[in-house]
Every structure is written in structure tokens, then in C-alpha cells.
Amino acid sequence: MTTRLVPSATHDRSLRLAAVLDRCAMSWERTGVRHFAELARRLVRHAEPRPGDHVLDVACAAGEALVLAAGAVGPSGTVIGMDVSAHMTRRAARAVVDHGLANCWVATGDVAAGPPHPIPLADGAFDVAMAGIATCLSPWPERVAARCAELLRAGGRFALPWWGLPDPRWIAALDASVRHHQAESAHWLAMDSPFWTVESVHEMLRAAGFASVRTSEEPLLTRFTGPEQWWAWVWSTPAREFFESLPHHLVPVIHREVCAALAALREPDGSLLCRSVARFTVATTPR
Description:
CATH superfamily: Vaccinia Virus protein VP39
Structural class: alpha/beta
Low-confidence stretches: 1-8
Radius of gyration: 19 Å
CATH topology: Rossmann fold
């Protein structure tokens, strides 16, 4: 296997993603909104880990999918989780301990960077690979896919979630945060990202060496008690990077304006309901 050279600009984007995920880790899925846990539950359903399978969980975050996959493969299987964020992998390791799982290992690292990895990963050693939602923000998703293709056995499955169309009612409300200050956010897709269309994602996966690829769409409903819970939640996600980039005096201004705009979207019970589309792509290596 040849050593992969990483362009410095891309490397910087990877370090920035790891840093923002570190800052998210303490509050991730702890604001009363189980958004990413629901994505993880559906991801595992699409990945279909079976008893005895060996599973790699890339971008494992706090271990939501990791724990579910470990239960699916049972004591005869294994699950390895990796994430670029050291703070996230600490939480994932804590989840492994809390659930008493003896078939899981977690390490901080980037599978796209190639070997050596913090945990030995042998080509063809895995039946299933899953990539968490943060893969959409990776500066090199095509490298994640290519490395997972190498690590999977013949006929192995690679599953990843990504976003379809956003809730159109929310777009105008969230634009209130943008008009004051144009800043790059880890929450936004880069222009060179493949995660804009189904066709571009399928093209990326076929180029990575997968033989068959399919994508399904599912509605995803996320309910917030109100604008203030949404504000707390968004700071637990990579979207916080945008707000962190704002001049300090603008943050309370944007907070007021966004919350006022979101208040107009309240349901009859006062809650906010975001209706988005989640896409799940499953690719299979050649047999």
C-alpha cells in the first residue's frame, strides 16, 4: 500500500473539523434533543450488522451507532469505532464501558489518513463499515470511502447517512444569522463536496471501488421545545463554528433575531418541528 500524501489546506480543514467536534463533545446529544441518536439508529438498520460480523464505525462520535452495532453482532462479533475528535472518542469509550460491551474498541484517528492507525486495521478484515454524519463535513470523503472499500471483505457493506432537502420553512428563519456576517462554517457543505446529489455520491463510491450502490430517503422529524432549545442544540453541533466566528457583539443580536424568526414557526403546542430528509447510502464491495 502506498503512503497517501495529504495537501496542507485539506489537512487544515481536517484539523478544524476535529477541533469543532472536540468543542461539541460535552453537549452533543445532551440538550434534550435526540437528533443524531436517531440518525445512528437508522444507519445501523441500513448497514444490517449480523451476529458474528466485524464492524468498523468511522466518525463514531459519542458511540450511538457503535453501541447498537455491538448489540447486533453479539459476543462472536467485534466493533471498532474511530473519530477524529479525541473528546468524542472519550465519550464513545465511556458508552462502551457503561453498556458493559466486551466486543468494542474505540480510538482517536482518521481512517482517511491511511496507515498506521491507532488500532491495527487489516485490509479485508471487516464485514460492515459505517460512516457517521460528520463524514459529510470531512475534507476528503472520497478517501474515507476508498479506505473503507479496502478494509471490507468481498461483498462487504458500507453505509453512510447524509442530508437531503432541508425544511424550506426554516431557511428564511436561519438566513437571519447569515446576513450580518459571511463566515465559513463546518456545518455547511464545501462547494467541492460530493454530498450535493445522489448521483455525485454514487459516483464517488463507484470510483472508490464499490460494485453496487443504492440510496434511500426517509423523513426525519426533529422537535424542539422552542427557539431557546434550538439555540442550545445548535451549539452542540458543528454549526457552532459559524457563531463562534462572529464578532462578539453580534452573537446576542443574531440570537434574538433567529429566535424571533423561529417563533413564527411554532406548532400549536408551542414546539418547533423541523421536517428534513435523511438519505442513507449503502455500497457493496465486489464479490
